[in-house]
Amino acid sequence: MAQWTFLTNHAHVLMCVAENPNVRLRDVALQVGITERAAQRIVTELEEAGYLEREREGRRNSYRLHTAMPLRHPLDINHRVGELLAIFARPSEGTVAASTDE
């Protein structure tokens, strides 16, 4: 029997980034339970949709979340990503300050 969860892999990736803006995609993949390639695809989709920004710092990436962006499903459109993260993510020191409200 296939397992299912209430939150998508996209939400789980966002939570990983909120908890550690310098997280490696290899670690995101392990935490979410997906391949590194899937984690990379999700980060790219989130970046293209404006939910996060990726900045190269040497050999690593650093991420900045846009917490004022709305959730995407029509039933959730009146809620913001920041609301979801406030409930589920455990931000590291400074993560909240690094988040961008638009």
Automatic annotation (TrEMBL):
Cross-referenced InterPro entries: ArsR-like_HTH, HTH_MarR-typ, WH-like_DNA-bd_sf, WH_DNA-bd_sf
Pfam families: MarR_2
CDD domains linked: HTH_ARSR
Sequence ranges assigned to domain HTH marR-type in this UniProt record: 9-58
MF term (GO), any: DNA-binding transcription factor activity
Gene3D superfamilies listed in its UniProt record: Winged helix-like DNA-binding domain superfamily/Winged helix DNA-binding domain (1.10.10.10)
UniProt-recorded name of the protein: AsnC family transcriptional regulator
Lineage, uppermost ranks: Bacteria, Bacillati, Actinomycetota, Actinomycetes, Micrococcales
